[in-house]
Structures are given as structure tokens and as C-alpha cells.
């Protein structure tokens, strides 16, 4: 069967939650002499492909860093291009996600987005809420430090009584019901996490790929999964 897992990966060594920093769109475009926005368009195609591949492989949760709190500082035309892609995705792709049994969610400081985007986000989340084949989490206007600050503020507002434990704070992160990422992939050759899943990624396994995000394909995803399957996760124990 064309869509089955690589033989070496058994069910037990598949990560439940794969998180991805989709880096390298700009450099991919530059290499081809194209505008950066075209790189992001190709990145969107790679994202759709990766959602399908993750679903076929049996990954239960996929989260992607689609727009960081820092990305607003980019050229106006690039920010507009990314917002255009966000709208295009929300308008044109949600029904297909629903048919595939995907639950879509958006996490980050959402109140900065325009009303039409927020309405489509709410519609998409409501429509797909009961789906359980795969959860796809889009981190938009997301920053890991901001998430921790927001969690602390929310904890204080809740009049929490008693010691501030990890368990207590965890209830206030953006998606407390989603398990922490088991495998965090970053494409584009850079070896850093850039403020992504700072709390949740504490014990994630990292996989850094030199491939630019628009070229990320099934084979590269499988390489990351194979690497993960060979790791020995000790969570700080000997
Ligand atoms: C990093 O590449 C990528 C981004 C900042 C945006 C990622 C967005 C998509 C893949 C599609 C858009 C999806 C939504 C839902 C908005 P880079 O531009 O930093 O690449 P570079 O490091 O080569 O310059």
C-alpha cells in the first residue's frame, strides 16, 4: 500500500504530536529568483502535503509555526502576502480538512487579526470540533514567551489558591488538552527554536533538516520519524 508507514516504524515508536518550524520559504524563493511571497505560497502547498502525509502515517497531532509575534516586523508586502495566504486557507481549505476528519485549531494572540479572519477562524474551529482523525494546530501570532506570560496572567486572574505548580500553570497554556510535542522538526538548516513551544517543548526530541520548507516531502518526514524512532527518551532520568 502506497500510503503505509515505513516498515521500520512500528505503532509504538510513532510520535503522537509532531511540531514543525516551517523555515526556509524566503531562501527557497531567492534561489529561484522569485519574490519571498512566492516562497510562502510554495510553503502553503508543502503544509497541505504534510498534513495529508501526517494523517496517512497515523500522527494524531500536528502543530505548525505559521506566523510568529516577530513576523510583523517584516516588509509590509510580505506581511500582507502572509495574511492573504491565511485568508485563502481559511476560505478555501477548511471544508476539505473537515471531510478528512481533521480538527483545526489556532493558537496565539488572536485578537490582533482583522474581524473577517477571526470570524473564519471561529467557523473553522466550530465546524471541525468533533473530528478526531488528526488535530492540526496553527500557531499564529504565536510567541512562546508570550504564551507563558499569558498563562501566568490567566492563572493570577483565576484566583488560584495554593502553590504555583507545573500542573496548575499548565491549565492556562493555549492548548492544555494537547499533549506536548514528542518530535519537533525545524527545516531550513538553522539550529534554534525561535520562541516556539517553549513550555511544551521541554522534553521534545529535535530534528533539524537542511531542506527548505517548500521542498519538505514525505521522504523527509519519514527520515525525521525514523530518527525519532531510534531515540531513547529519558525525560531527565538516568
Ligand atoms: C519561515 O520562512 C516561514 C514563515 C515566516 C511563514 C510560514 C507560513 C507558511 C508556510 C504558509 C502560511 C500559512 C498560514 C496559515 C499563514 P522564512 O520566510 O523565514 O524563510 P527564510 O528563513 O528562508 O527567509
Mean pLDDT: 94
Number of domains: 1
Q: Provide the β-strand percentage band.
A: 15-25%
CATH class: Alpha Beta
Q: Considering DSSP H and I runs of 4 or more, what fraction of the residues is helical?
A: 40-55%
- The CATH topology corresponds to Undecaprenyl pyrophosphate synthetase
Number of strands: 6
- What is the chain-wise order of helices and strands? EHHEHHEHEHHEEH
Bound molecules: farnesyl diphosphate
Structure description:
With 238 residues, the chain is α/β, with parallel strands linked by helices. It has a single domain, classed as 3-Layer(aba) Sandwich (Undecaprenyl pyrophosphate synthetase). 41% of the residues lie in helices and 15% in strands. The protein is built from eight helices and six strands, in the order E-H-H-E-H-H-E-H-E-H-H-E-E-H. The protein has helices spanning 25-31, 36-57, 76-92, 94-99, 115-128, 144-157, 166-170, 218-229; strands at 17-21, 61-68, 102-107, 134-142, 183-186, 205-208. Helix 2 runs parallel beside helix 3. The model has no long low-confidence stretch (mean pLDDT 94).
Amino acid at each position: 500500500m502506497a500510503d503505509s508507514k515505513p516498515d521500520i516504524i512500528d505503532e509504538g515508536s510513532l510520535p503522537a504530536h509532531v511540531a514543525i518550524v516551517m523555515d526556509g520559504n524566503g531562501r527557497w524563493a531567492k534561489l529561484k529568483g522569485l519574490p519571498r511571497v512566492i516562497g510562502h505560497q510554495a510553503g502553503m502547498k508543502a503544509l497541505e502535503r504534510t498534513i495529508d502525509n501526517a494523517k496517512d502515517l497515523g500522527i494524531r497531532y500536528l502543530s505548525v509555526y505559521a506566523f510568529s509575534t516577530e513576523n510583523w516586523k517584516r516588509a509590509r508586502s510580505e506581511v500582507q502576502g502572509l495574511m492573504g495566504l491565511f485568508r485563502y486557507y481559511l476560505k478555501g481549505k477548511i471544508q476539505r480538512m473537515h471531510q478528512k476528519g481533521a480538527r483545526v485549531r489556532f493558537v496565539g494572540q488572536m485578537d490582533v487579526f482583522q474581524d473577517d479572519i477571526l470570524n473564519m477562524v471561529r467557523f473553522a474551529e466550530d465546524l471541525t470540533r468533533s473530528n478526531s482523525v488528526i488535530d492540526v494546530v496553527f500557531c499564529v501570532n504565536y510567541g512562546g514567551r508570550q504564551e507563558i506570560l499569558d498563562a501566568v496572567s490567566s492563572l493570577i486572574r483565576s484566583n488560584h489558591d495554593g502553590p504555583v505548580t507545573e500542573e496548575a500553570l499548565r491549565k492556562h497554556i493555549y492548548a492544555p488538552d494537547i499533549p506536548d510535542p514528542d518530535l519537533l522538526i525545524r527545516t531550513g538548516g538553522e539550529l534554534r527554536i525561535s520562541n516556539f513551544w517553549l513550555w511544551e517543548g521541554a522534553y521534545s526530541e529535535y530534528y533539524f533538516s537542511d531542506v527548505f520548507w517548500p521542498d519538505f516531502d514525505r521522504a523527509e518526514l519519514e527520515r525525521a520519524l525514523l530518527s525519532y524512532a531510534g531515540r531513547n527518551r529519558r525525560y531527565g532520568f538516568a
